[in-house]
Structure formats: C-alpha cells, structure tokens
Amino acid sequence: MARPNRALVLASATLVGLTLTLVVSQGMMGAERPHYADWTRLNPQKNFIRSAHPEAKDVYVNAAGADAALTRSFPFPAGSELVKESIDTDTLEVFVITAMRKVPGFDPDNGDWEYGMFERGDDGAFSGMWADVGSEMHQMCVSCHTNAAANDFVFLSYAGD
Ligand code: HEC
Fold it and tell me: Which residues span the domain enclosing 2?
C-alpha cells in the first residue's frame, strides 16, 4: 500500500477539526437529551392537564432539583433539571420529551432555565436540542413559563402535596 500522503492526512485532520468546530458552534453538542431513568417522578397520577404540551404526561426531576420540587422551596439550585415525557395514548410510547435545566447566568431575567425538546423518530432514537437563549424556541417556552414565575418558572401543577 502506498504511504499516505502527509499533506492529505493533514488536510483531512483540518477538515475534521473544522467540522467539529461547526457542529459545536451550531449547538449540536447541546443535542444530548437528558437520561432520567433514576430521577424522581413528581406526578402521583398521569398528568392529563390540557396545555401547550400534549396530554398524558409524566414529569421527572433530577437529584439536584428534587428537594426544591418536593418541598416547593424556590429558587431551584444550579444543576436542577426537569423532564416532561409525553405519551401517545394509542401506542403508549413516549414520543416527545421537553426539558428545562438551571444553568447559572444563562438567562438571569427568566430564572436561568435552559429549555430543550427531543422528539422520537421512526428509528426509536430521540433527536432535538437545547435552545439558545436568543432563539425563538427559548422565547416561546419562556413566554408561557413566565406564568409560573412565583414557582421559579416551574408549574408543578400536576405534583401532589
Ligand atoms: C402555552 C404555555 C406553555 C408553553 C409555550 C410551554 N409550556 Fe411547558 N408547561 C406549561 C404548563 C401549563 C405546564 C404544566 C402543566 C402541564 O404539564 O402541561 C408545563 C410544564 C413543563 C415542564 C414540567 C415542569 C413544570 O414546569 O411543571 C417542562 C419541563 C416544560 N413545560 C418544558 C417546556 C419547554 C421546553 C417548552 C418550549 C419548547 C415549553 N415548556 C413551552 C405550559 C407551557
């Protein structure tokens, strides 16, 4: 086999580097969905509240946010994360998850919550993103969650006492 051409190797390494930079700058690295199998479910019964979110929902909170959610002591600490699963009532499959996580300095006027949305594709895998602070998606989530500002922007309306 011929020796690989050094210039070619360098060029492809540069290309990989550039692609990675592009991916990072487009926020794709923020595409990792939360994994919440060991989180605490907040709703005693499935949540059928009509809202912007589809019906049949479960909401989970991670360890960092559990105390705040369960004892309603606000604000939530840094690192708190909530996930809402939406379940298709025909197939009982989780077809979308929305999420919010507390990132200090992310958006101080709106509780420093970063909002994410991940949809399940035909292959069963979730894809989606955490929205940038200036994005339409972020504004859309904030526009409504601001109604729960008294609860640090988390509705908790489905949670038990
Ligand atoms: C039109 C209003 C509205 C919009 C827009 C909205 N939400 Fe919500 N959200 C609610 C309401 C009401 C609840 C609680 C009741 C429910 O479960 O539907 C909620 C609950 C949640 C929860 C569970 C934690 C909590 O607040 O109790 C998450 C996570 C969440 N929303 C994420 C999002 C994300 C991400 C977006 C943007 C993509 C978004 N929401 C946009 C109204 C809204």
Answer: 1-30
- Same domain, yes or no, for 6 and 55? no
pTM exceeds cut of 0.90 = no
The finding on whether 60 has its CB within 6 A of some atom of ligand 1 is no
Structure tokens at 159: 């949670």
Q: How far is the CA of 64 from the centre of ligand 1 (A)?
A: 19
Q: Model confidence over 62-121: pLDDT tens digits? A: 999 999 999 999 999 999 999 999 999 888 899 999 999 999 999 999 999 999 999 999
Alpha helix positions (H), 52-135? 63-71
Number of structural domains the chain divides into: 2
